Structures are given as C-alpha cells and as structure tokens.
Fold this sequence. Notes:
Helix content is 3%, strand content 37%. By secondary structure, the protein is mainly beta.
Amino acid sequence: xxxxxxxxxxxxxxxxxxxxxxxxxxxxxxxxxxxxxxxxxxxxxxxxxxxxxxxxxxxxxxxxxxxxxxxxxxxxxxxxxxxxxxxxxxxxxxxxxxxxxxxxxxxxxxxxxxxxxxxxxxxxxx
Length: 126
C-alpha cells in the first residue's frame, strides 16, 4: 500500500472480509430491517438502517458490539468524526443528530453510553 503524504481524508477505505455474515447477522434474513448507509473509522464500522437504528461493529474482528437506537426515521447518512467520539446521523425526516459515543474512553464498547449532543430538524415547506 502506498504511504499517504498528506493528512487529508482517505479517498477509499478497504475492508477485507472472509465473509460478510458477521456484518449481516444483526439484521438477519427477515427483510424487515436493512442497512441503508455505513461509515468506517480506524476501529469501528457503523451501519445505519431503515428502522432508525445504528449497528456498531469492531472493525478488526467484525464482531457486533451493539445496536444504537437514537432516531425514529430511516437513516440515510452516518459519519464518524476522526476521534471516534462523535457520530453524525441524518434521516429521511430531515433530522441531523450528533451523538457522543465516548468509545475511546471505554474498555468495553458494548457498555458505551450514547448521548445526543445536537438534534436539528429541517424546516418543512408549507
């Protein structure tokens, strides 16, 4: 892999998996829940779903850590902050939510308390 000379964001992130089963296990084959978006940080993978939930995984082991239910609408965008302590979520209802994860401060990510820092709503046209 070629070494980056600048500190800008990566143009692509590769994830090597022998199988995707570990990443698909939380939603199963029900067809009711489906992933709609994702983002990857150095240590975590997060998927947004059509149910308004987030699904958090350890990037290295692909182990499912926990579901995060913070919004009630279909998630269309999820984005990590570079320090992994903030996560932005956008929904089809126009919500933009900034979550504080405190993942870097925890030994066991499954016990992380998620705090909503900011919740904005788009103005609806009349």
